[in-house]
Amino acid sequence: MSDVLLLSLIIFLPSIGALLIAMLVDGKSVQTLRWLNLGFSTATFALTVWLGLQYDSEAGGIQFASKSEWIPAWNIFYRLGVDGISLPLVVLTGLISVLAAIASWSITKQHKGYFILFLALQSGMQGVFLSLDFFLFFVFWEVMLLPMYFLIGIWGGPKREYAAIKFFIYTLFGGVLMLIAMLMLYFHSGATTDSFNLIELGKAAAGTSSTLSSTLSPTLQVWAFAILLIGFAIKLPVVPLHTWLPDAHVEAPTPISMILAGVLLKLGGYGILRVAMPLCPYGAAECAYVMVAVGVVSILYGAFAALAQTDFKRLVAYSSVSHMGYVLIGLGVWKIGEATGQTVRPDLWLMGINGAIFQMVAHGISSAGMFFMVGVLYDRVHHRDLNQFGGLMGRMPTYSGLAVVLFFAGLGLPGLCGFVGEAFVLLSTWNFDGPLAVAAAFGVILTAGYILWAIQRVYLGPEYLGPDKDLLSPVNGREKFVAVILVVVAIGLGIYPRIVFDVMQGSTTDLVQLMQAGYQHTSSLLPTINLPQN
Amino acid sequence: MLADLLNNLINDTVGKGFPFFAAEITLSVTIVAMLFAKMLKADRIAPTFLIALAGAGIACWFSFAQFSDVFNEGSRVTVFFGGMLRQDLLSVYFRIFLTLFLILTIALTILTGVPDNEDGQDFYTLLFSATIGMMMMASANNLLMVFLSVEMASVPSYVMVGFLKGRKESSEAALKFVVYGAGAAGVMLYGMSLLAGLLGTTDLTTLGTALASADSGGFASAEIRTIAFGILLVFIGLAFKLSLVPFHFWCPDAFEGASAEVAGFLSVASKAGAFALLLRFVIGLSDSVNGSELMTAFGLGLGIVAAVTATVGNLTAYTQTNLKRLLAYSTIAHAGYLLMAVSAVVVMLNASNTTVAWKDIHYGIGAILYYLAVYLFMNLAAFAIVAFVRNQTFDESIDSMKGLYRAHPMLAIAMSLCLVSLIGIPPLGGFLAKLTVFGAVYQACSVHWLMYVVLGAGGLNTVFSLFYYVRILKAMFMQERSENAPKIHIQALDVSYAVILSAMVIVLGVWPSIVQNIMAIANEAGASSLLIGQ
User: Fold this and answer.
1) Given a cut of 80, is residue B71 above it in pLDDT?
2) Of B439, B443, B515, the CB nearest to A71
3) CA B503, CA B495: separation in Å to the nearest integer?
4) Does the beta carbon of B439 lie under 8 angstroms from any beta carbon of chain A?
5) CB contact at 8 A, B345 and B282
6) Are B498 and B385 in contact (CB under 8 A)?
7) C-alpha to C-alpha distance for A484 and B320, rounded to whole angstroms
C-alpha cells in the first residue's frame, strides 16, 4: 500500500463508512448499524496499528510523507505524514474510537444519524493528527465541530443544547484565532508554495529552510504564538478557558464523553506541539513562564473544583482539566539563561515534552476509562450523585475492581499509566522554577484526595444509598470487554512506558533542537529588525 | 464632418457596443416578448416562465461567449457607448453571475409558484429590468451611468417587494423601501453634482487624476473638503443599496414584507451589483501611483463602517424570530464582511509607500468576487428552502423549521450546509471565501494598523454569527414538531433544487479545479478592473 493511500485510508475510511450507512442502511436495523460502525472503527484502528508497526522509530522524523495539490492559487496542498509525536496519538484515537463504538450500544434513539456523525468525527480527528499542511490541519480541526455539536446536542443529557452551543462557540473562537495566526504566517513567509507547509514553516523560523527565506519578526512571533496558544488552550483546556468542558463532558452521551476526554483534548496539546511551538519558537520562549504558570493554576483549580463536585461525571470532567495542566507545563518548561541566551539543560526540557506527550496518551486511556465506568453506572440507576452511591464493591464486584484500577490510573499510582507522565513533568519543572514545581506537586496530593474520596463514596461503604437498588446488575460481557482492554493498556503503559517513549524520542529530540535553533535565529533578528510602524 | 462623426458613432455602437451589450439587449427583447405573448394570449400555449427562462438562458450564453473573448485576449479593457460603459473581465464576470442567478431565480419561482401564470409577465418584467440595471451597475464607467443604473435596478425592486398584492406588510415594506430609496438617490445625486462640478469630469477613469491634482493642497483647502463631502454623499447612496449600517433599516422590513423569492433575489443580485459599482467608484477615485491621503482615510472609514455593519447585523439577527428577517440581518452582516475587503483594496490602492504588491490588490478584488460566487449559492438555497417550507406551513418563523430533519432529511441537511457555510466553517465554500477576504484585510494591515482592528472585528463576528445560525440548526434537528403543526410535504423536485444549490457550496469549498479556476478568473477580473480603458 502506498504511503498516501495508507494515511488517506486512515482518515477517510470512517467517512466512507458514514456514506455507506447514510445511503444503504435502513435506520431501523439498529443492530446492522452498530456492527457496521464497529467494523469501520476497528478497520481504521487496525490500519493505525499497521502504520505504527511500519514506522521506523530508529530513523525518527516525518515518515509516510506525501503531498498533492489541492488549491494551488492559495498554495494549499494535501500534505500528509506521521512522526513520533503524532503516531502515539493516531493509535490512541483508533483505540478509543473502537472502544467508544462498543460503548455506543447504549445509544437509544436516532441510531442512523448518530453513527454517521460518529464516523465523520473520527475522520476529523485522524485528519488533524496526520496533516502536515496548516490549511488542511485547520480544515480537519473545524470539520470535527459540527458532528460534535450534534452528538452532544441530540444525544446528550438534559442540558444538552446549552452544552452543545457552548462547546461550539468556544471551539469556533479558538478556530478563528488560529485562522488569523495562519494568515500571519502565510503572508510573512512570502505566500509561496511552502507557506502552509508546517515542516518548512518550522524550519523557516530556525532559518534552515531551503524554500522559505522570510519568517515572522520577533514581535510578531510573540503575537502569533499568543494567539495560537489561546486557540489551542481552549481545546486543551486551560483555566480560565475551560468552562465549556464540564458542561460538554457531563451532557454528552458516554461514548462521546470518552472521545471528548480521550482524544479531543489531546488535539489542543498536539496543536501546541505541532503548530504553535515550532512555528514561533521565539514566542514560545517568551511565553514559557506564562504556560507553566497557567498550567499550575489549571492543575490546582481543576483539582479543587473536582473535590467540590457531587456529580460523579462532573468530578471526572474537572479531573481532566487538572490533568491537562501537566501537558501545558511539560511543553512550557523551556528555560533560557538570561546571560548566555542559551537553553539551560535542554535534556530536562526534552524530558518535559516527552512527559507531556506521555501524559496525553495516558490521560486518553484513564479518562476514557473513568467516563466509561461512570456511564455504566448511569445506564443502570440513571443518577450520578456521589452521595447516593456506596457499597458497589459488594453488589458489582467485577465492575468495581476494574473501575478502581482505572481511577488509580487517573490518580497517578506508580505502575499505572498516569504516574509516568506526571513524574516526568514534575521533575523537569524543578529545573524551570522551584516554587511552581512545588505548587504543581501539591496538585498530586489533591488528585489523590478527590479520587480516593470518590472511590470511598461510590465503591466502598456498607450499602448502596440511592434509588433503583435492584437495577444494579453485574456488568455484561460488552462492558467488561471495554473495561478490561482499558485496564490492560493502563497497566501496560505503566509498567513498560518505553513503548511510547521509544517511538517519540527521535521526533521530540529533533523538535527541541529545532526550537533552540529557531530561538537563536529569531533573536539574531532582534537588533536589526524595524518594529512595525503605524 | 458630420458624416464622419455619424460613421464613427455607428461603428462604435454597432461594432463595439452591441456585442458587449448583447446580454442586456437579449433581456430587453425578452421583456417585450413576454408582454406581447400576454397581449396575444400566447401565454396559454407557452407559459411566461418558459419565455423568461429561454431569454435568461440566451443572455447567459452571450455572457459566456464574451467571457472567452475577453479572457483569451488577456484582460482587455474597452469603453463603449461614448465612454458610458466599460467592458472588462469584471463586467463580464458580473454579467455571467447575474444571468446565472436570474436563471436560478426563475427556476425557483417556477417551483414555488410565486407568481402564478396570471402575474408572470409582470413579475418577470420587473425581475429582468432590475437585472439589466444591475448588469449596468457592474459596467458603469461614468457618474451619470452610476446614477442611472442604480435607479434602474432600484425602481423595479420597489415594485417587486410590494408584489404580493393585498398583503398589508408587503405594501408597507414597499413604501418604506421607496421612501428610503428616494432619499438615498437624492443624496447620491447631490454628491455626484459636487464631484462633477469640482473635478470637472464625470468619467470614472479620469476622476482619480482630477482628484490627485486637486488633492495637492491637503485637507486645508475648502475644495478638497467639498470633494470629500461629495464622495461621502455618493457613498451614502451606495450604502443604502448595500444596506450598510446605519442605512440598513429598510432591509429587514423589505425582506419580511417581500416573498422569500424576491428577498433572495435582492439579497444576492442587488448586493452583487452594488458591490461592483462601489468597486468601480473607489477604483476610479484612487490614485495608485502617488497614493492619496483622502482616499486612504476613506478606505479606513469603509473599514470602520464594515466592522460596525457586521457587528450590528450579527447581534441584531440573534433576536429575530422571522426567518426572512433573520436572513436579512445575515445579509447585512455579510455585506459588512465584503466591505472589509473593499476597504482593504482602497487602503492598499492608495498606499503612498510601495510596500503593497500590485498582485495583492488583485487578490483583494478577487476575494470579493469569489465571496459573491459562494454567497449566491448559499444564500439563494437558504431563501429557497424558506420558500418551500412556507408553501407548506404558511409560516416563516424559525418554529416552522422544527422537526424538518424528520420530515425531509435531505432538505434539512441542505439547509444546514448553507448555514454552516454562512458561518464560514471549512470545508465549505463560505470558509474559503472568508479566508480570502480576511487575507486581503491582513495584507492591508501593513499599510495601516487600523486594519488589524477590522480583521479582529471580522474574526469576532464569525463567532457572533454562530449564535443565530445555530438556532435554525437546533430547530431543524433537535426540536420536535408540535402535534397540531401542519405537516411538511415537499416535492422531490424542490428538494433536488435545494440539494443541487447546496452541493455547489461544498464544491466551491473543496473541488480543486473549480475553486482554482474561479479564483484565477476572479483575480484576473480584479486585475482588469484596475486598468484604464481605451
Assistant:
1) no
2) B515
3) 12
4) yes
5) yes
6) yes
7) 52
What distance lies between CA A468 and its chain's CA centroid? 36
Q: Does B314 touch chain A (CB under 8 A)?
A: no
User: Which residue from A113, A139, A177 is facing B426, i.e. has the nearest CB?
Assistant: A139
What's the confidence (pLDDT) of residue B101?
Answer: 95
**Does position A528 have pLDDT exceeding 70, yes or no?**
no
For residue B470, list chain A residues with Cβ-Cβ distance below 8 A. Answer: 149, 165, 168
Minimum distance, in Å, between the CA of residue A115 and any CA atom of chain B: 15
Classify the C-alpha dihedral B302-B136-B91-B209 as positive or negative: negative
Say how many residues make up chain A: 534
pLDDT digits (tens, 9 = 90+) for A152-194: 999 988 899 999 999 999 999 999 999 999 999 998 888 788 8
Q: What angle do CA B326, B182, B277 make, to 5 degrees?
A: 70
Confidence of residue B528 (pLDDT cuts 50, 70, 90): confident
Q: Any alpha helices (H) in A241-382, and if so which ranges?
A: 244-251, 254-259, 265-271, 277-279, 281-286, 288-308, 312-332, 346-381
**CA dist., res. B267 & res. B279, Å (int):** 18
- Lowest mean pLDDT of A228-237, A245-254, B70-79, name the range: B70-79
CB-based burial label for B260 (10 Å; 0-12, 13-18, 19+): buried
3 state DSSP class of A77: strand
What does the block give as the cell for A348? 530536562
Interface test with A, best of B374, B422, B425, B451 (most A CBs within 10 A): B425
- Cα separation, B373 vs B367, whole angstroms: 10
pLDDT digits (tens, 9 = 90+) for A204-249: 888 888 888 777 888 899 999 999 999 999 998 898 899 999 999 9
Cis peptide before B427 (omega within 30 of 0): yes
pLDDT computed for residue A530 by the predictor? 53
What is the distance in angstroms between the Cα of B319 and the nearest Cα belonging to chain A? Answer: 16
- The answer to whether A176 contacts B459, with C-beta atoms less than 8 Å apart, is yes
Q: What is the pLDDT of residue A529?
A: 47
Helix (H, G, I), strand (E, B) or coil at A133: strand
Per the rule left: phi > 0, alpha: psi between -120 and 50, beta: everything else, B74 is left
Strand pairing partners for A131?
Answer: A80
Please list the residues that pair with A133 across neighbouring strands: A197
Q: Which residues of chain B neighbour A187 with C-beta distances below 8 Å?
A: 439, 442-443
Nearest to B462 among A143, A176, A186 (CB): A176
Cell numbers 483569451: residue: B72
B401 vs B119, which has greater pLDDT?
Answer: B401
Measure in Å the smallest separation between the Cα of B88 and chain A Cα atoms: 22
B274 Cβ contact partners less than 8 Å away, ≥ 6 residues apart? B137, B150, B238, B241, B242
Q: For chain A, what percent of residues have pLDDT higher than 90?
A: 69
Give the H or E element holding residue A80.
strand A76-82
Strand partners, A197: A133
Set of chain B residues whose Cβ sits within 8 Å of the Cβ of A176: 459-460, 462-463
User: Which residue in the block uniquely carries the three cell numbers 461567449?
Assistant: B65
Q: Is the peptide bond before B156 cis (omega within 30 degrees of 0)?
A: no
The number of CA neighbours under 13 Å toward the Cβ of B318 is: 11
Name the residue of chain A whose CA is nearest to B431's CA. A139
How far apart are the CA of B478 and the nearest CA of chain A, in angstroms? 6
Report pLDDT digits (tens) over A111-126. Answer: 899 999 999 999 999 9
Residues in chain B with CB shorter than 8 Å from the CB of A153 are: 474, 477-478
Which of A386-390, A525-529, B171-175 has the weakest average pLDDT? A525-529
From the candidates B454, B473, B499, B524, which should be mutated to test the interface with A, based on the most A CB atoms within 10 A? Answer: B473
Q: What is the reported pLDDT for A527?
A: 61
Q: Distances from the Cα of A431 to the Cαs of A300, A347, A359, A427, A515, in angstroms?
A: 20, 11, 19, 7, 18
CB spacing of A71 vs B516 below 8 angstroms: yes
